[in-house]
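User: Sequence for Cro/Cl family transcriptional regulator below. Tokens please.
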Amino acid sequence: MPIIVTLDVMLAVRKVKSKDLAEQVGITEANLSLLKQGKVKGVRFETLAAICRYLDCQPGDLLRYVPDEEAPGEGG
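Assistant: Structure tokens for Cro/Cl family transcriptional regulator:
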């Protein structure tokens, strides 16, 4: 998938625990874990906005585009 989720990096930079973020944003820790792993098909803008608000960051700090041929673990 050409979209790489870097939420785990921002959590480390901000020294925020996943449990705390999930609680503040109003999602389960399991769903947050899936988001961090990039195993979701989409994310609501409302959720993305809440994450950005809590972490004081921009959506681009959490997501980046990598063309398929450059994505880690992809290709054939």
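The chain has a mean pLDDT of 91.
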